[in-house]
Design brief:
globular, ADH-like_N, alpha/beta, about 350 residues, Quinone Oxidoreductase, Chain A, domain 1, 6-stranded parallel beta sheet, 9 helices, Alcohol dehydrogenase, oxidoreductase activity, oxidoreductase, GroES-like_sf
């Protein structure tokens, strides 16, 4: 079987990956489409730093602890797939059913996240295993390429749900990469009446408008805080200095939701947040209900993800796609269609 894997910091294609065999409670699926996530790009470039950060973090399981960067790493967690076969005694959708799932594989040894792994094959492969109880059949004849974006859209929906934003409030989204775009789409889905989007890239600002932003701002031409008085600010950049700048400029009482994942040490001035009584909430991922709601919203036409898809490659094109995604003027989301 063929799969694109991370080897020595670069994506390469293997033709000799062992065929996955479904066990009890599992299904074998053929991958229809898999989105390339920014976290995959970051892991490819900064895997050692991510493993080190995971090892230092207390209070939750280190899901990266068993990864060996000297061995091929499987990735790909934004996927849709076609059911091929089920494991022994497994109640699963019929063969041919198009499905998606939260990226978790349940096995006799426990839970394996389908994100980065030396053993569990992800969506950058011809076939993979999924857990039957977690499968969501794709409804309404939805294009499998669009269904593959359920996962990133659930990230945006989780951020919006966490913010408790109301229809009459103004929301400001800082950064219009895939996370920021997903937040904008979720804000529009929730009926927020004033959505302001800020990004240096004209291409990303245009996409933000197509996805639901009412106002777009080029921060090089003036602060977005001068164009609006937001009740909620979503930080979706994840770079050092951004959060401190938001805290310095945000109006008193603003709720700040940090959805961008900053992997580098950063410096902030807590006085800004204290003096203005800002509320800071860091978010990550989503829950299963938000994943299911995102799929339903896409399938029913409440969220149109088509404008986000700016490229499509086969397995042989994954390495080039990783490089191309570094240019914000060219791409938002590239799909891998094995």
């Amino acid at each position: 079987m063929r799969a694109a894997v991370l080897r020595d910091g670069a994506m390469v294609v293997r033709d000799d990956v062992p065929e996955p065999v479904p066990g009890p409670g599992q299904v074998l699926v053929a991958v229809k489409a898999c989105g390339i996530c920014g976290s995959d790009l970051h892991f490819a470039s900064h895997g050692e730093e991510m493993l080190a950060a995971g090892a230092e973090m207390e209070g939750m399981p280190d899901t990266l602890a068993d990864i060996d960067l000297a061995t091929d790493v499987y990735m790909g967690h934004e996927f849709s797939a076609e059911v091929l076969d089920a494991g022994p005694g497994t109640d699963a959708p019929a063969a041919g059913t198009i499905v998606t799932s939260v990226p978790v594989l349940v096995s006799t040894s426990g839970l394996e996240m389908i994100v980065y792994s030396n053993s569990t094959v992800g969506g950058y492969a011809e076939r993979m295993l999924l857990s039957a109880p977690l499968l969501l059949p794709v409804p309404n004849g939805l294009d499998p390429r669009h269904a593959a974006l359920t996962e990133p859209m659930a990230v945006g929906l989780h951020a919006v749900n966490t913010s408790r934003v109301q229809r009459g409030e103004t929301a400001l989204v800082i950064g219009c990469g895939p996370i920021g775009i997903a937040i904008i789409a979720a804000l529009r889905y929730r009926g927020v009446e004033t959505i302001v989007a800020s990004d240096f890239s004209p291409t990303r600002r245009e996409l933000a408008a197509r996805m639901g932003a009412h106002v777009t701002v080029d921060p090089s031409q003036g602060s977005p805080f001068h164009r609006s008085t937001p009740a909620v600010v979503f930080e979706a950049v994840g770079a050092p200095g951004i959060l401190d700048d938001v805290m310095r400029k945000a109006p008193a009482g603003t709720r700040v939701v940090i959805a961008g994942v900053c992997m580098q040490p950063d410096t902030v001035h807590p006085f800004f947040a204290s003096a203005k009584q800002l509320s800071l909430h860091f978010v990550f991922g989503y829950d299963p209900a938000e994943f299911a709601e995102s799929l339903r919203a896409i399938a029913e036409g409440d969220i149109d993800v088509a404008p986000m898809i700016t490229g499509e490659v086969g397995l042989d094109g994954v390495a080039g796609a990783f490089a191309d995604l570094s240019d914000p003027e060219r791409h938002c989301k590239i799909l891998v269609t094995p």
